[in-house]
Amino acid sequence: MTQRFLLEGHKGKAICEKCANICSTTYRYRDVPFSDGKGLASGILVGVCDTCNTVLSIPAQSTPKIKRDRNIATQSIEAVLPAPYLDILDLACFSIDPNASTDFRKKLLLFYIHKFALGKFDVENISEPNPLFSLDHDISKRRLSMKVSKSLAEDFTKMVSVSKLSKTDFLKNVVGEIKRQVIDDRNKDVLEELRTIAYLG
Length: 201
Fold this sequence. Notes:
By secondary structure, the chain is an alpha+beta fold. It has two domains: 11-70, Ubiquitin-like (UB roll) (Roll), CATH 3.10.20; 75-200, no CATH class. Helix content is 41%, strand content 24%. It has helices spanning 63-70, 83-96, 104-118, 150-163, 167-184, 188-200, and strands at residues 11-16, 21-33, 40-49, 55-57, 75-82, 141-148. The chain has a four-stranded antiparallel sheet with strand order 1-2-3-4. It has a two-stranded antiparallel ribbon with strand order 5-6. The longest helix has 18 residues, at 167-184.
């Protein structure tokens, strides 16, 4: 069955509670607030009442844009890590692609968090505190701050809970796993996938 694809200016009909009637509609691009009042879907095609200008219908073709706007990066993952952990991340990024953008550090960390959440990587590898360094003296620390989507924030919360570690220790262990797979073992399959991500920006 061929799905009808609507264009701006197409006509339709829908029940309008405000007009208390079945009204004709015209499909137009509008910014539509989410029902919970938190944000809006911008520039989506909707059916607008020709009488009162109220949005009455949302076609299926607008769903992907709504989902993207709903899932926009609005939550934060933050931690303060010893500087060598960030140096390892930067070295891993360079090993994957010397020309990778500065944003790739975030993508690399989130790639691993998501893989662990999906069960693609063995969570046992990160379930015990396993510091990479013996930090027996004061060492510089650096803040790690990432704006992430709701779904990735949920992945992070889930894995912190599963690992039974603090957020900081969990992130340290993820960096340790990145070091093992990317820098030490040069895991071919993982590197190939990460290089594709880096290439796509």
